[in-house]
Amino acid sequence: MNVIKTYLSVAAVVVLAGNCFSQTATKPEKVSHAEPLYLDLVRDLGARKGEKEFNAAFDFTKFKNFNEQSFLVEYEFAPINRVGFEVEVDFSFFRRTADNASAPNSKIESLRFSTQYSFFVSTKLKTTLAVGYTQIFELADFKDYKKSSLVTGAVYNPFFVAAKRWGDHFNTLVYAYPLLEHDFATNRLDLDWEINTSFLFTIPQTKHFVGVELNKEFRDGKFDMTIRPQAKIRVSQQVALGFVTGIPTKKKDEDISSFLRIIYEP
Fold first, then answer.
1. How far, in Å, CA of 137 to CA of 108, rounded?
2. Which among 40, 125, 51 has a CA at the least distance from the CA of 82?
3. What pLDDT digit, counting tens, does each position of 106-120 carry?
4. Which H/E stretch holds residue 151?
5. DSSP secondary structure string, 118-129?
């Protein structure tokens, strides 16, 4: 729990320090990028002070021996220009598809605390670059709450984002990072990499988009990729819906998945 207190203390210092500096009366420049729906960003690239967003998402994945139903809630906000924060809670529930099949135990999968800073924003080049960090705390299974520590591990996740809009409607984005996984019980550290790219087309004269997200994993010396066709529909000024289908390319035990994201910007 000391790691959680340290992260929250550092985040509080960043926010307080940022508020001590005066912000200009005019809004800083910002490039409008269409951003992926499945592995979304901490906050809009080039975030402006005062922006905030609530998300809820539902994921259903069919495996060989069980089904997984996941649910997440997250809150994003920008306390100062160019800086975004996010708090996310992930839940996972599993159901065996056969009496003699084995399945993981249901649990609160993780708590995530993220920070993102857009250090380069160019409306002329229609490009934004950002760096950030996500601290992930892995939690025990529901059935083990009284038997073991609540926090069983941590994942240390610095990341880099590069986004460019081509013309008025085509958007590309690269979201890349290492994942350093720390198992507290064994004190083991494992390093994996993920590189996610997206190609999205904004429908003219609307805020809707369609496109594809490619989630690529380099884990234990093996490469896996999931192709995620997706669409975002703006149903009102404050509410949007995101629809995603996951198509694994090499995972033999995993079938096509579906994902729904509800986005609310007050």
1. 10
2. 51
3. 999 999 999 999 999
4. strand 151-166
5. EEEEETTTTEEE
Q: Which of 35, 5, 259 is nearest to 135 (CA)?
A: 5
pTM of the model: 0.88
User: Using CA atoms, how far apart are residues 2 and 120, in angstroms rounded to an integer?
Assistant: 33
Per-residue pLDDT reduced to its tens digit, 144-197: 887 778 999 999 999 999 999 999 999 999 999 999 999 998 999 999 999 999
- DSSP states of 11-34 as a string? HHHHHHHHHHSPPPSSPPP-----
- Gap between the Cα atoms of 259 and 256, Å rounded: 10
Q: Which has the closest alpha carbon to 207: 185, 239, 173, 181?
A: 239
- Whole-number Å distance between alpha carbons of 60 and 92: 10
Tokens of 18: 């940022």
Residue 105 corresponds to which amino acid?
N
Q: For residue 117, what are its two tokens? A: 């800073």
| CA pair distance 203, 187, nearest whole angstrom | 49
Q: Of the candidates 217, 128, 134, 126, which has an alpha carbon nearest to the alpha carbon of residue 170?
A: 126
CA distance 70 to 68: 6
Q: Is 95 left (phi over 0), alpha (psi -120 to 50) or beta?
A: beta
Please give the biggest Cα pair distance in the chain: 65
Please name the fold of domain 2-19+28-264: Porin (2.40.160)
Q: Closest Cα to residue 232, out of 90, 55, 112, 113? A: 55
Burial of 126 (0-12, 13-18, 19+ CB in 10 A): middle
And the tokens for 182?
A: 């720390």
Inter-residue contact 73 to 264 (CB < 8 Å):
no
- What does the CA dihedral 232, 233, 236, 237 come to, rounded to 10 degrees? 40
